[in-house]
Amino acid sequence: MAVRNAQAKLCLAHLIEEKLGFSITKADSLRLNINSDTNYNSDGRKGAGFTLGQDASLLRRAIKRKQLMKVQRQKNIEAIMCEAMRVCPEVTSQGLPDADWVDRFIHLAEDTSNSHMQSLWAKILVGETISPGTFSIKSLQTLKQMTQKEADALHRASGLCAYSEKDDSHIIILGFYKRPSFFDLLRKGNRETINLSKAGLSFPNILTLMDINLIYRQEIESAELKSDQSYTFRFHRQKLLLSAKHNDLVMSYYKFTQTGDELKKLLSVPLNKSYKTALQQGFETEFQLNWTD
Q1: What pLDDT shows up at residue 4?
Q2: By Cβ atoms counted within 10 A, which residue in 15, 64, 119, 183 is the most buried?
Q3: How many angstroms separate the CA atoms of 120 and 190, rounded?
C-alpha cells in the first residue's frame, strides 16, 4: 500500500508541475514563513504542508500557468488542423465555412488534448469545409462537453443505427408488434424486441446518449404497415429493404436528434454482426428482408 501511495504522489507531483510550471515540495517547518503565499496545507488553505515554487511570487506563478495553458491550447488546435489536412479527401468544396463558425470552432476545440476526440474535431472541420452548414454550433458545444465514455456510447450506437429515408434521420430499430384486433384490445400480439445489449449497446449507454441529447428519450412507433409496404434503411455500406408480409404491423425505434445526426456523420462504423443476425431472426416471420451492398 505504501508503494502505491508513493507512486500516486509522484504522479500527482508530476501533474502539478506540468500544469502549473513549478515543482511542489514539502514545506520545511523549521524555515516556514507563515506569511508566505507559497505554503498550503492539505485542504488548500495557507499553512504548513506543501510549498509550490517558493522562489517565485504568486503573480509570477499565475503568469506561468496562463502561458502553459496558451501553449497547450495552441498545441491542441495545431494537432486538430494537421489531422484535418491528413484526412481531407480530394473533392470539390461547396464554399468556405462561415468566418464566425470557424472562430467558434477554434474556441471550442482548443481545450481538447485527447487524440481520439481531436480526430472527431478534425472530421467536423473537414465536413464543414466541404459542405458549409453541415455542423451546427450546438453540435460543436455538445462535442466539447462530451466525455470519452459518452463518445464510446455513440460509437457503439453507430454500429446499430440505420439511416431512414422516410424519417431523414438515423434510427435504431428496436422491434415490432402486430396491432391487436378489436376483440383483443388488452394485449399487443406478436411483439418482437431486439436485445441491444447483446449487440454491445447497453441500457446505460442508451441513457447516456439521451442525457446528452443525441437520442430522443421516448421510443417512436411507425404508422401501421400494410402487406407489401416497404421501408428502406442504410446501415453503413449495406442497404436493407424491409417489406411487411401482413397488415397492421408497427415498428418501434429510437430516433437520433439533429445533433445526434450531425455527430453520427463523424463515425464510419460497420453494421454490428450480432445486431444484424438478431434483426434478421426477429423480423423474418413477419417481414421480408432483402440486404444489398
Answers
A1: 58
A2: 119
A3: 41
pTM: 0.76
Contact (CB, 8 A) for 200 and 250: no
Task: Give the pLDDT confidence of 189-232 residue by residue, as tens digits.
Answer: 568 899 999 999 999 999 999 999 999 999 999 988 888 888 89
Q: Look at the alpha carbons of 228, 229, 232, 233 in this order and tell me if their dihedral is positive or negative.
A: negative
Q: How far apart are CA 165 and CA 172, in angstroms?
A: 13
DSSP 8-state assignment for residue 252: E
Query: Is 247 within 8 Å of 227 (Cβ atoms)?
Result: yes
For residues 120 and 262, what is the distance between their CA atoms, to the nearest angstrom?
12
Would you give the end-to-end CA distance of the chain in angstroms? 56
Inform me whether the pLDDT recorded for 51 exceeds 50. yes
Cα separation, 221 vs 153, whole angstroms = 23
CB 156, CB 284: distance < 8 Å:
no
- Segments in the chain forming alpha helices (H): 2-20, 58-87, 99-109, 115-130, 137-145, 148-158, 203-211, 258-264, 273-283
Give residue 112's Cα distance to chain centre.
13
Give residue 87's Cα distance to chain centre. Answer: 19
- 127 phi, psi to nearest 5 deg: -60, -40
Instruction: Report residue 156 as a C-alpha cell.
Output: 457503439
